[in-house]
Design a protein that fits this description.
By secondary structure, the chain is α+β, with helices and mostly antiparallel strands. It has 7 helices and 29 strands. The radius of gyration is 52 Å and the shape is elongated. 20% of the residues are buried.
Length: 480
């Protein structure tokens, strides 16, 4: 019985020991499962944050390389391409225009063993500063040359329209047509980002040759062009030339805008328009000879009055300046009234008894040395006065009158005759050149010819005659 009791104790003890080992083994496996789960969760979280890739050595990664420089490594080709797209989208949004890169950008496949992976967002940020970019723009070409850049075709068209519209809006006349003198075209083009202009600046470039016109606004009453020019490193003449419309002002009023740069338009906008305006019809002056009045005296009998007419013109304007004008029609609104003037024709004959020999009726045709006087001489009768001087010297009309002869005349050589009315004429002979024509009205002292040595002449001089009703008289009796 005792042995049986010992045997029961041993079996019970074994059973308890086995149960304890089974429970300890179960607890150990539970702990292992918990540790394994925690490790997996940590790995997933770390990889989600772009940390170390714990994939096998047989996996691949993709490296962005710019001109040989590695920028970022991504887990897949699609993520690498997405990073590039993200970079371009970011830059396009930043500058408000389509952006492209110009560097050599490659995506190289490498082993993923031990590499650090970046997200697409991180890779896009890494490309910034490492990848050169340009704008996909539109060039406005003037006569075949790329002259300025805008973001797109719509902006190009708008800038050109606004430039043309500028000259239409400033005009109140009937505009018939508007055109640009130069050949304008637009083409797609890459451009540096800072070269691409917004519409308003592009319009100003077309109109003025600069994006913004620089002005000085008069800061104090009474400033002068000289002061403004000196303060801005310019000459006064240059500043006045730029501001021609106000250049005559001695002083400038407060706030006046004074342009500091001369516009240099890139295009010429031609505006053809129809202009209706009223203008004066000048009155005619009718002269009536009065033999009772001394020569040179005039008396207005009745005042002249300008008429008025309405004129329609076809005008072509280039950049605001009229270059061509053609009258289409004219309607007289008020007829002009002629002015009637009586003009004295009485000639005062000099007294031959005057010791001075002259009465001052006519002026000297040339002031020089008298080499031969009026009257008889060894070679015969001399009908005038010879006054010597260098060839080419100016010969002046002795009195107002009408040219009746201007050509070669036998021994006189080149000769000019002037009819002064009331039977009085003056002759100018031996000329080297004639500057008037038959029928031309001349004034006293007008340059009519050049002293010469033509015809029967022994040296350069002018032969001067004074005639009444065809008879020659001593010129010294009539010269002052």
């Amino acid at each position: 019985m005792q042995n049986n009791h010992k045997q029961d104790v041993s079996v019970a003890t074994y059973i308890k020991a086995s149960e304890r080992k089974r429970k300890e083994k179960h607890r150990s496996k539970a702990v292992q499962r918990m540790v394994s789960s925690a490790v997996v969760l940590l790995c997933v979280a770390f990889l989600a944050l772009g940390g170390i890739n714990l994939v096998s050595a047989n996996s691949s990664a993709y490296v962005l390389v710019v001109d040989g420089k590695e920028i970022a490594t991504l887990a897949s080709m699609s993520e690498a391409e997405a990073a590039i797209d993200q970079f371009l989208d970011n830059k396009s949004a930043e500058y408000g225009m389509d952006i492209v890169y110009t560097d050599d950008l490659e995506i190289n496949k490498v082993s993923a063993s031990g590499v650090i992976l970046s997200s697409s967002l991180e890779a896009a940020d890494a490309l910034d500063g490492n990848l050169q970019i340009m704008a996909k723009a539109v060039a406005i070409c003037i006569d075949g040359e790329k002259s300025l850049y805008v973001p797109d075709e719509e902006a190009a068209r708008e800038a050109i329209v606004l430039a043309k519209q500028y000259y239409i809006d400033a005009d109140t006349d009937d505009v018939l047509s508007v055109a640009v003198e130069e050949q304008i075209s637009v083409v797609s083009s890459l451009a540096d980002i800072d070269q691409v202009l917004p519409v308003e600046e592009a319009k100003n470039m077309l109109l003025y040759g600069c994006a913004e016109t620089e002005y000085y606004f008069v800061a104090s009453e009474g400033e002068t062009f000289a002061e403004i020019a000196a303060n801005n490193g310019m000459s006064e003449d240059a500043l006045k030339a730029i501001n021609a419309s106000i250049a005559d002002s001695e002083t400038l009023t407060l706030g006046t805008a004074v342009a500091l740069s001369q516009p240099d338009p890139m295009i010429n906008v031609l505006v053809e328009k129809e202009v209706v305006q009223t203008q004066a019809i000048p009155y005619n002056v009718i002269h009536q000879d009065n033999y009772a009045l001394d020569r040179g005296q005039e008396n207005v009998i009745s005042e002249g009055i300008d008429g008025l007419e309405e004129v329609t013109l076809r005008v072509v304007v280039s950049n605001g300046e009229v270059i061509r004008s053609e009258e289409i029609s004219a309607t007289t609104l008020l007829e002009p009234v002629d002015e009637i003037v009586e003009r004295g024709t009485k000639v005062i004959l000099a007294s031959r008894d005057l010791a001075s020999g002259g009465s001052g009726v006519v002026g000297w045709p040339y002031v020089g040395t008298i080499t031969s006087r009026f009257g008889w001489r060894s070679r015969g009768w001399h009908s005038g006065l010879d006054i010597a001087g260098p060839e080419g010297e100016p010969i002046l009309a002795a009195e107002a009158g009408t040219v009746t002869y201007a050509d070669w005349y036998y021994g006189y050589g080149y000769l000019v005759k002037i009819d002064h009315g009331n039977g009085m004429e003056t002759y100018y002979g031996h000329l080297s050149a004639i500057y008037v024509e038959v029928g031309e009205e001349v004034e006293r002292g007008q340059h009519i010819a050049a002293l010469g040595n033509t015809g029967n002449s022994t040296g350069p001089h002018v032969h001067f005659e004074v005639r009444f009703d065809g008879t020659a008289y001593n010129p010294l009796d009539y010269l002052e």
